[in-house]
Amino acid sequence: MANLFPITLKNGETIFKIIKIGGLQGNTAKLDMSIRMVKINNKYIVTLTKNYNITENGTLAMSTWKYEVDRNNIKLVGSNEQGNLVRIIK
Fold first, then answer.
1. Smallest Cα–Cα separation from 68: which of 58, 78, 82?
2. pLDDT band at 2, cuts 50/70/90?
3. How many other CB atoms are found less than 10 A from the CB of residue 60?
C-alpha cells in the first residue's frame, strides 16, 4: 500500500479520501487522515492518524504515530498500527 499521508495537512485538520481496499467486489473505505500538535515547554507532541473507518473482529482499522519534536530532533515516542486490518477484508 502506498504512503497515503498528505504532506500539506495543517494542525487540527482532518481530510479524507475514498480508497480501494480490494476484494472481488471492489471494496472501498473512507480513509481519514489527521494531525494534532501540542506544544509542551520547548517541544511539540505531534500525532499522525490514519483511520480507515472499518472494524474487523471488534478492532478499528486505525494507525497512529506520536512524535516528540524539538529544534534539533524528531523522536517516535509511540505508535499503534492497526491499518493492516484492511488487507484481510476481501
1. 78
2. low
3. 14
Segments of 2-41 assigned E as strands: 14-22, 27-40
Number of DSSP helices (H) and strands (E) in the chain, helices first: 0, 5
Give the whole-angstrom CA distance, residue 79 versus residue 68.
12
Nearest to 27 by CA among 48, 4, 56, 62: 56
In the chain, what is the straight-line distance between the N-terminal and C-terminal CA atoms, in Å? 15
Residue with cell 471492489: 26
Q: d(Cα 71, Cα 32) in Å, to the nearest integer?
A: 29
Burial label for 31, CB within 10 Å (0-12, 13-18, 19+), is buried
Question: Model pTM greater than 0.85?
Answer: no
Cell output for 42: 520547548
- CB atoms < 10 A from the CB of 21, how many? 19
